[in-house]
Amino acid sequence: MKIAISGKGGTGKTTLSALLVNTLKEKGYRVLAVDADPDANLAGALGFPHPEEIVPITEMEELIHERTGAKPGTAGGFFTLNPRVDDIPDQVCREQDGVRLMVMGEVKKGGGGCICPESALLKALMQHLLLQKDEVVVIDMEAGVEHLGRGVAGSVDSLLVVVEPGQRSIDTARRVKKLAADIGLHRIGIVGNKVREKSELDFIKENLGDIPFLGYLPYSKDIFEADLHGRPLSHQVGDIEEKVEEILKGIGIDPK
Questions:
Q1: In this predicted model, what pLDDT tens digit does every residue of 25-84 receive, in sequence order?
Q2: Measured between alpha carbons, how far is 44 from 227 in angstroms, rounded to an integer?
Q3: β-strand 2-7 against 99-103: which pairing, if any?
Q4: Rounded to two decimals, what is the model's pTM?
Q5: What pLDDT does 70 receive?
Q6: What value, to the nearest 5°, has the Cα angle with vertex 24 and ends 21 and 26?
Q7: CA distance 88 to 102
Q8: Which secondary structure element, helix H or strand E, spans residue 161, and what is its range?
Q9: Residues 98/33, Cβ–Cβ less than 8 Å
Q10: Domains in the chain, please, with CATH?
Q11: Number of Cβ within a 10 Å radius of residue 231
Q12: What is the DSSP letter of 239?
């Protein structure tokens, strides 16, 4: 099962990613967590020690040079567009309490995007993760779908777009849906977050159009405090475990 999570900044993508990862782990699944958001926070949410010391793949200059034949930051020259990546997850993954974590990092984009060695390596690595890995892969993404390209998007079993009560968040979800459809990814669903009352839940449902609604997470003071103080979410699942399991069922995973 391959699950990608997107949404407007601040809606709770990383919160949902961490809760899904922890719940799947507790149910006995082998889980690979991938932080593909340039503003990487998934390691801290999962309780990995010293997350600030984790080096993103896009900053591993020797690895990028070895696999592509060019140094990071170069563009327009010659480099390998399809580098070998099958052994990279075992080399760079951090592991803790049965969860493996990989941090992708940010590709510095120019005005017309980036055709560069680090971009080529990330693309090949994402293809490998989505097409070859035999475990549950949970990808915490940015608002777009840049890390998913044509040819591998169809391997994503579900793209979850996190929304909070508010029109801007809903508008972002609609844009993500269009971008996803452009690369052939049609298995998309909405997860509400920070829902305090029924009227807010109704607002989300009434404004989604034809995007399926998969479930929601209620506002949680425990999760808010954990996020505020940078504490891991591993011990915050209990209060909303039932809601997380409903979301998993909505994407075809039986958490029991």
A1: 988 899 999 999 988 899 999 999 999 899 999 999 999 999 998 887 766 667 888 899
A2: 9
A3: unpaired
A4: 0.89
A5: 85
A6: 105
A7: 10
A8: strand 158-163
A9: no
A10: 2-48+95-106+133-250 (3.40.50.300)
A11: 16
A12: G
